[in-house]
Design goal:
The complex is a heterodimer of chains A (487) and B (534). By secondary structure, chain A is an all-alpha fold. Chain A is built from 20 helices and two strands. Helices cover 74% and strands 1% of the residues of chain A. The longest helix of chain B is centred in the middle third of the chain and has 32 residues.
């Protein structure tokens, strides 16, 4: 019976792996001609997984009730919340990818399979309640991601991005693994519950080192400063649909993982990691903001913006309480929508020959040539800057409110003051699109799927999105409560 | 009118109009914009007519729980009513001012203006702390676009400066608001207005709010964005910026800083006095040497806003009422002056004072209106400027005579730079042929000038219309501030006068002082007693 129960809890992972294998066979027989069909099938699989996951969102059962495989895996509301965001990000990637790759005949059937594989790895990451399960999930995701970054094999920038991502990612994995081994050595357990119990007493020096190394390894994965160096290069070099993917799904997975590790496994010793998180948060906000100022490539700019936004999310983690975690989840959900809108809009920037336009200067006067696209991008920029009444403000609002309620007033004040620096480069993009004379570079037509996605996400970040704040708050609160339930 | 969501409707009409403008071409966009603003003007008139003077403090309340963390909660008191009235009154005039001058991207232009109107009404009617903040901050986006797209040569620099200055000012206020909300357990503004925060916390909260309002107001030395923004904005942008946006700072002080943190307000009153005195003298002197008409009026705005702040921090009824009237009057007068500059700018496309001269000869009607607004700006009795400045300075005189002394020099300097401007532009010889050939006001310009002139005169001759709705609210605020009122350097004592003479005095003050002279006498009592006790 225990086996059946465990199988039921890891249902989505099984669906993903089995259908992934079947589709792999289909790809092997059908060749690259079948890539579109396989993409569609993969989106269908992700949809099924999302439907299977959704009921767990309101899951009141926590702790042992949703634990599978001898405490390796948890199917709680927190995992469900993160998984839905991950599946959404993965599905968006699959929807926008064909139009991008088709232009250079670069679409291959393995692309959707990589995405499915990564989605499964990320699902394991956010559900893991054991350091080893965590590591397997992380590597499964990373392996797929390294290949995706280098997917345009003939393109030098893409190859470089893949290599950089691989080298630095492996380094981070090594650091993480070292931290895990230290933690295991000083607590005698790899399960989160075991580590939590072992850390309840006085903290040994070795365990502190373990915590620091684990956090450093994870900070690489979420691209938080000072471990952010790879982000701009990888975001710029990777094909835009893959960049969209990196900015959404793996970011959600890594942040959710970080939350579960910090708040559950190391939850008994918040003092040991809170300072690190505060430092990383502020540094990410400032470096993300300052680094973006000199950028002339929109993808690099969005990369720095993601560093900046991770900093804001970490403020929620720094609170080390349920309200902070809930706020972080709300921010994460809003950030995914903003990223989708931003990158889809970037994908739609194409010149006459259909080649992608990435230079900010080439976007000059976009509001005259493509008013709706410019409007959507402007909304994304103001939203990322956190200017009300766009929804991006709400993410910052809940995070800072949690920080203020947790008594972290100076963190909140410094963080929000630094957000003004970020506003500078966001409004610079708006300035280029609206105030400058038209450069008439962007011409190309965009396909229907991209338009629909852009419209949907733009409506979601418009003031209408505030109508979603209530249900979103309830779901995030539920998920955060599951995280804090110590079995 | 109870139950009918008139405030929501006033917010919705321009918003719908804005969407319509985005879709429409130039011709239809301006018609839509004019229609939407006129509908809001009518709704504003209905609002005022239905407002029950002396009735409940908060009227037309609406409430809907739509969002997490804050609520859709609207309602107005007399202070908000007057500022909303100012907004809806100026908006159609702004649209009129843009009627011919805006050629490029007119749809977007009018859409931005209508969004601005929604947000401004929202700021004045919000009863939820965070709803207020959202409305307050959101105004940055349309104003940034208005300055940046339709502004003059240096528009980009001005738009950045405007955006970043005001954003930096506001974000700290947000943190303070969050702290207040978690401390008081509510985001309801009326409740917060009577919440007593610990004195230590008040100091920090006051400073955070001050950072925002001082930039918005703008107070010296954070005013430097204003001349840039004004000069570069299109005429209507300047009108709305000077007319209404600056009032958000004053409204913020009167709605938040004073009632919510009375002790801190008293503590920081000397800071306000110092900055205001500096502003009055320095910006007036700067205005005196300007060659650009818009810059001159922009600096005069800073000086007038300084009169508002000293009045607000006089902690007595005359000061508060006077500040409100100065705000309303300045909204009308500075708006009108920018409009007057716009009229000749449209003809000659320069704002340089030297390029004009002798306009009284070829533009007599224009000269007349310009004269009226100049006089109102100077504060000539019979115009709105006099009532407000007189009351404000009277209020501060009762509190601190030295501050009153320094700030009154602003009136003299104001007369100097305004009359000097008027002389150079309207009188003298017609030294420039192209300026001499400019035609007088056309029907559209008449239609914009006449209502402004009428309102300025009305407010100057019979200010009771504007004082009545807010009297009770000001009295409530004064009572709230009484506990914290600092001891000023003014040591007023009630003189002993023969009864007849006293009656005469009273009558005279009624005429000038807008019927609030009794307030002054009521004020004398405690002051005198205080003085004697020493």
């Amino acid at each position: 019976m225990e086996l059946l129960r465990s199988l039921a809890i890891t249902g989505t992972e099984e669906v993903l792996s089995v259908s992934g294998l079947i589709l792999l066979l289909a790809a092997a027989w059908g060749g690259d001609k079948a890539s579109r069909v396989i993409s569609i099938a993969s989106v269908a699989v992700l949809t099924v997984c999302a439907v299977l996951t959704a009921p767990a969102l309101g899951n009141a059962a926590m702790g042992a009730g949703v634990s599978a495989w001898n405490g390796q895996f948890s199917g709680d509301a927190f995992a469900a919340f993160a998984k839905l965001l991950i599946y959404a990000g993965a599905a968006v990637t699959l929807i926008i990818a064909p139009a991008f790759f088709d232009r250079t005949q670069a679409m291959r059937a393995e692309f959707p399979l990589r995405v499915l594989c990564a989605a499964m790895g990320m699902g394991i990451m956010v559900s893991a309640t054991d350091m080893l399960a965590l590591y397997i999930g992380l590597e499964l995701n990373s392996l797929a991601a390294y290949v995706m970054a280098a997917f345009l094999r003939s393109d030098e920038r893409s190859a470089e991005a893949g290599l950089k991502y691989f080298v630095l990612g492996s380094l981070a994995s090594g650091i993480l693994l070292y931290g895990i081994s230290l933690t295991y050595g000083f607590t005698g357990s790899t399960s989160f519950a075991g580590i939590h119990a072992a850390l309840a007493g006085p903290l040994s020096m070795g365990a502190t080192f373990g915590i620091v190394f684990v956090l450093a390894g994870l900070a690489f994965k979420i691209s938080a400063a000072p471990f952010h160096m790879w982000t701009p290069d990888v975001y710029e070099g990777a094909p835009t649909p893959v960049t969209t993917f990196f900015a959404t799904a793996p970011k959600v997975a890594a942040l959710a993982l970080l939350m579960r590790v910090s708040l559950f496994a190391f939850g008994a010793q918040p003092g040991a990691w809170q300072q690190i998180v505060i430092f990383v948060a502020l540094l990410s906000i400032v470096i993300g903001a300052l680094g973006a100022i000199g950028q002339d490539n929109i993808k690099r700019l969005l990369a720095y913006s993601s560093i900046n936004n991770v900093g804001f999310m970490l403020i929620g983690l720094a609170c080390a309480n349920e309200a902070g975690a809930a706020a972080m989840l709300v921010y994460l959900a809003i950030y995914v929508v903003m990223s989708v809108a931003g990158f889809v809009a970037v994908l739609m920037l194409r010149d006459e020959s259909g080649a992608p336009v990435e230079s900010i200067a080439a976007m000059a006067g976009l509001s005259k040539t493509r008013p709706m696209l410019a409007l959507a991008l402007a909304m994304v920029m103001f939203s990322l800057a956190g200017i009300p009444p766009l929804l991006g403000f709400w993410g910052k609002f809940v995070v800072f409110q949690a920080a203020v309620q947790a008594g972290l007033l100076s963190l909140a004040a410094i963080g929000i003051a630094a957000s003004v620096i970020g506003a500078f480069y966001y409004i610079k993009v708006v300035k280029v699109m609206y105030f400058d004379e038209a450069a008439d570079v962007v011409q190309g037509k965009s396909d229907m799927a991209q338009r629909v996605l852009l419209l949907g996400s733009a409506v979601a970040i418009s003031p209408l999105g505030y109508l979603l704040t209530k249900p979103l708050g309830v779901l995030a609160g539920n998920a955060a409560a599951a995280l804090f339930h110590i079995a | 009118m109870s139950g009918f969501p008139i405030l929501s409707l006033m917010l919705l009409v321009p918003l719908v109009g804005a969407v319509g403008c985005l879709m429409a071409g130039r011709e239809s966009a301006r018609m839509i914009a004019l229609a939407a603003t006129l509908v809001d003007l009518v709704l504003g008139a209905v609002l005022w007519s239905q407002y029950e003077i002396g009735g409940p403090q908060w009227q037309f309340q609406e409430h809907a729980s739509l969002f997490a963390g804050f609520e859709w909660k609207l309602g107005i008191d007399g202070i908000a009513l007057l500022l909303i009235a100012l907004t809806v009154f100026l908006m159609p005039i702004c649209i009129g001012a843009s009627w011919k001058t805006i050629e490029k991207r007119a749809g977007e232009y009018y859409a931005n203006f209508l969004v601005m109107e929604t947000l401004m009404i929202g700021v004045f009617s919000a009863q939820d702390l965070f709803l207020f903040y959202i409305m307050f901050e959101a105004g940055l986006i349309p104003m940034y676009l208005i300055i940046g797209i339709w502004g003059g040569a240096d528009r980009i620099y001005a738009s950045y400066k405007f955006f970043l200055y005001t954003l930096l000012g506001s974000v700290l206020m947000l943190i303070a608001m969050m702290w207040m909300a978690s401390e008081a357990g509510t985001t309801d503004i009326p409740t917060l207005m009577s919440t007593n925060f610990p004195a230590q916390a008040q100091t920090w909260l006051w400073l955070a709010f001050f950072a925002s309002f001082a930039v918005k107001m703008p107070m010296w030395p954070t005013h430097t964005w204003l001349p840039d923004a004004h000069v570069q904005a299109p005429t209507a942008g300047s009108v709305i910026l000077a007319g209404v946006l600056l009032k958000m700072g004053g409204y913020g002080f009167i709605r938040f800083s004073l009632p919510m943190f009375p002790e801190a307000s008293a503590q920081f009153a000397p800071l306000i006095y110092g900055l205001s005195m500096a502003a009055v003298v320095i910006t007036s002197l700067i205005a005196l040497v300007q060659n650009d008409m818009k810059k001159l009026i922009a600096y005069s705005s800073v000086a007038h806003m300084a009169i508002v702040t000293v009045g607000l921090f006089a902690f007595n009824r005359q000061g508060l009422e006077g500040s409100m009237i100065v705000m309303l009057s300045h909204g009308l007068v500075s708006g009108a002056l920018f409009l007057a500059v716009g009229v000749i700018y449209d003809r000659l496309h320069t704002r340089e004072i030297d390029r004009y001269g002798g306009l009284a000869i070829n533009m007599p009607a224009y000269a007349l209106f310009f004269m009226l607004f100049t006089m109102a700006s100077v504060g000539l009795p019979g115009t709105s400027g006099f009532v407000g400045e007189f009351l404000s300075l009277l209020g501060i005189y009762a509190q601190s005579s030295w501050v009153a002394l320094v700030c009154t020099t602003g009136i003299i300097l104001g007369a100097a730079y305004m009359l000097y401007l008027y002389r150079r532009v309207v009188f003298g010889v017609q030294k420039n042929a192209d300026a001499a050939a400019m035609p007088d006001l056309d029907a559209r310009e008449w239609a914009m000038m006449v209502p402004l002139a009428a309102a300025v005169l009305w407010m100057g001759v019979y200010p009771e219309t504007f004082l009545a709705p807010m009297r009770k609210d000001i009295a409530g605020l004064e009572a709230r501030l009484a506990q914290a009122r600092p001891k000023g350097d003014a040591d007023l004592r009630l003189g002993v006068m023969p009864p007849a003479a006293s009656e005469h005095e009273h009558g005279a003050e009624m005429e000038h002082g807008a019927g609030t002279a009794h307030g002054l006498e009521a004020e004398h009592g405690p002051e005198a007693a205080h003085g004697e006790a020493h």
